[in-house]
Amino acid sequence: MKTIIVLIILLSFSQHSYARTVDSVPNNIKRLNIVLSNKSSFPDAAMMSFHTQAWWNQLWHRKKIRFIIANSIDEATARISRIMDKEHAMIGNIWFDSHGHMGRRVSILEMGDVELNYQSIKDPQIDNRLKVIGRYCDSLTVASIGSCYSGAGYYSAGTDSFPPHRMNGDSLMSLMAAALNNATVYGSVSWITTKPGLFGSGYAFAGNPWAKKFKDPKFRSAWDSLGVWKSYTAEQGFRYINTVSMDHSANILVKDKSFLDFPKNKKKQQKKIKHLKEGNFSDKYFYKYKDPLQVKKAKN
Predict the structure, then answer these.
(1) Most-buried pick from 6, 50, 178, 253 (CB within 10 A)?
(2) Do residues 208 and 252 lie in contact, with contact meaning Cβ atoms separated by under 8 Å?
(3) Residue 297, CA distances (Å) to 118, 145, 285 in order
């Protein structure tokens, strides 16, 4: 009887140890950081600035960072695959650079020739391509959806023709995490700016754009959330986090203090909120961005 009990205990222990081994993720394999952006079909100062800074950092930190400009989602996945297979590496951090558009009324990530949102990301043609990147990701990978409002859960402002709509950035983030093999995903609740020093571990991604069209009450939720981000993991779910930054090697970092924790930033924010004016954001933008990127390209 004692022998049987001992065998049962040993069997249970061995199964427990095996489960821990299977669930654990090796952290001693080579990891590369990926910065992925899109080609622009028109002059875009913000994108040109981002591309220049990313290229410069890759020049000096090529052992740790790869910068890719892709014209399509197929090109993006193919180039990432080639790099990771050649280097026998996994992705440590990946930054998806993109524009977000409040006129779309949903959180989006433009990846080459397609738009990912909380609905389109479920399309098998898009999901399967994301999972190609997911082959090089695991629970130690950090992915950032680097587009404005990518983590927004509030309702967008609207018009009679385009009524307010929930942005559903949280859904986009969780679906991205699933496609990227349980990576940690970050999304911005407000704007992501492009200033000098993007790869300097500072607050260059935080703040507000200068254009007049953003000084409208339709953007009040974004103004209230300057520098606020969300994170999502399968284990912890959603959490609000401090402002996100990148260092010279494109490691994605969470700052110790958030952007609005600094009195001078808070003061500027409150001053600009007081001067928001109806009509600065024209209804034409709702018409301009009413369709996903892939639909707009098909029409053209």
Answers:
(1) 50
(2) no
(3) 20, 22, 17
